[in-house]
Amino acid sequence: MAQQRDYRIDASTLQQAQQVGLASADWHACKIDRKTLKRLMKRENQAPLAHFGLWLLLLIISGSVAFLAWGTLWCIPAFTIYGMLYAASDHRAHELSHGTPFRTGWLNTALYHLTAFMTLHEANFWRWSHARHHTDTLILGSDREIAVPRPPNLAKMLLDLCYIASGWVELKRIFRHAAGHLTKEDMTFVPESERPKVIWTCRIYVTIILGTVGWCLAIGSILPALFIVLPRFYGGPLSQLFNLTQHTALAENVLDHRLNTRTVKMNPIFNFLYMNMNYHVEHHMFPMVPFYHLPRLHDHIKNQCPSPYPSLWAAYREIIPGVLRQRKDPGYFVERHLPEKAKDTPRYPNGSRSTATA
């Protein structure tokens, strides 16, 4: 087994990343007309209401069918669809954590708390965690959301198709925070003023989780848990396949999202489920652009970026060999090639290694 790279997050590792100019640094941004960018950053209510309304309606319909079909084989496809839609809360919580979808603030807040519970990411904690991820994307010693550390743990990756490994970690964190304990790592990015919110929100989560368990025990059936909490696990594979396209096997410690992030073209159904987060280079480079404007943003900057992957399968044709190679060589990464006109921009730092072509 290859030696594990150091992914610790604490005050000392953050300071080391800052000293070498990687943490809280200036990142490359593609050139775009200021007025155009301002227009793309404009929030509205109609588009996100239509999106979230359809998502919630599909959840209600599939859940109702699953409930009525309980005890028959028809409940299997119904719960499959319900679980897939439920687990897609992960992408909605992700976008809502930025506060960008709705012009009306309370809609962002209310739906963020709903979807954060559904995906088992305590809302206040993950807002600060994800802010750090955007500030220092794949920067060792600072970014705690590096999903596939090197060398990759294949068993964990397979378990996480159903959110088993990471879900267990998140449940333990929720119960630990509910007990009032934040780790030293937590305190490197959650401001002191926000910590009571983390604790009290986790206590609400724990109450709902234990209440669901008690409900199951009281009626002698797992049915309540199939609608609350468990869908995040059994419905998770497609959402995890989406998530792994974001950064897996790409370069760490670079200050250019074009080199450590993927944009993948997907079909309309996948675009809906993934909430346009397949335009991930665009999302990271300009995170204040709402999800419904990301395709237009892509059109404005695509000539300055590597070619997008034409499909989910095309992305995995690169990810799978890259992950397998990193098992033996943690220094390896897939190199993304910039367009000829963008070759004068900063690229990989000294000491990075890649023999890939992409």
Automatic annotation (TrEMBL):
GO terms for biological process: lipid biosynthetic process. Residues 338-358 are annotated as: Disordered. Pfam families: FA_desaturase. The keyword Mitochondrion does not apply. GO terms for molecular function: oxidoreductase activity, acting on paired donors, with oxidation of a pair of donors resulting in the reduction of molecular oxygen to two molecules of water. One of its GO terms (cellular component) is membrane. Keywords: Membrane, Transmembrane, Transmembrane helix. The chain crosses the membrane at residues 49-70, 204-230. Residues 91-314 form the Fatty acid desaturase domain. This is Fatty acid desaturase. It comes from Aidingimonas halophila.
